[in-house]
Amino acid sequence: MSDPNIENRLIFVGGVPRSGTTLLQNMLDSHPDICGGPEFLHIPDIINLRKKLHLSISRRYIDFFCSYEDVDRHITSWIQDLLLPLADKQQCRLLSEKTPQNILVFSELMELFPQAKFIHVIRDPRAVISSMRKVGTRAKNKGFKPPSFAANITAGITYLKKCFDAGFTASRTKPGMVLTVVYERLVGDPAAETKRICDFLELEWSDQMISPGEKKHLGEKAITSMSNEVWYNATMYYCNPDSRNVEKWKNQLTLAQQVQITTAFEDYEELRQFGYDFSIDSLVPTKCILGLNYALFFHLGQKLYKYLSPLARKIPGIGRIRLLLFS
Fold this sequence. Notes:
- By secondary structure, this protein is of the alpha/beta class.
- Helix 2 packs antiparallel against helix 3, helix 5 packs across helix 6 and helix 15 packs antiparallel against helix 16.
């Protein structure tokens, strides 16, 4: 590489799909020093090619042609040559590459770009899966095959854990290189969160970042018209941070679905450290079901028994049941 500091210009954003990576990218793109382009999509493919080449070298298939260092040098230059011209064209010092699946190769990218910055976006898994299901429904309605992770709740849980594991592993390995951004905090206090992001990127804060819906973004065409609005339509894409829908999943998922997802993540310590509550008690409808509102059930049960008592007396053994339930 002709300039050893050129990699300082790269920001890699990743996270579970539907976790808020698009909103964050548009907020970054609203900063005058950052170009947040469309999703490049193929960084994970390039990293997988690197893995294959390294494997072939280790097996001494291609070691006469190249070394590990040769491969990494070419891969690094290739990624920079593909991405940075867009930032130059937009007259921006930094380039943010946001593809959700980047999270799966954060650790490898950190090896290749030790001076780059990495942002991991996380969101409540129940909200993510609720949003995934809507994507799956829109895809089916438009005659497309839904993404595999949107096929059902179990597939969504499996993919979420894969992404979370990759992101938190990268963060534990080199914590100074990875900033974890919590979606709920980002929409709840966008000024504070974007200031934190700018501190991490070593940039002066710009208040334009809190109103990304007011600026045109290069990523619009690919993520709206080119995807036939399966992921976003223009209205959804051009939005400002809004915390009113943070818990919308509670009305979109059935109680059984909420319990399934909640129990799947109840032992996920990294997420709990960021304030997510995966106790069954946290699900409001289950408070009644689990007896946390026992007084109400006791009262209703007595009323129901009294109403049905003439019939109940004719059923053998009903007295023992009454004694068990209401004594």
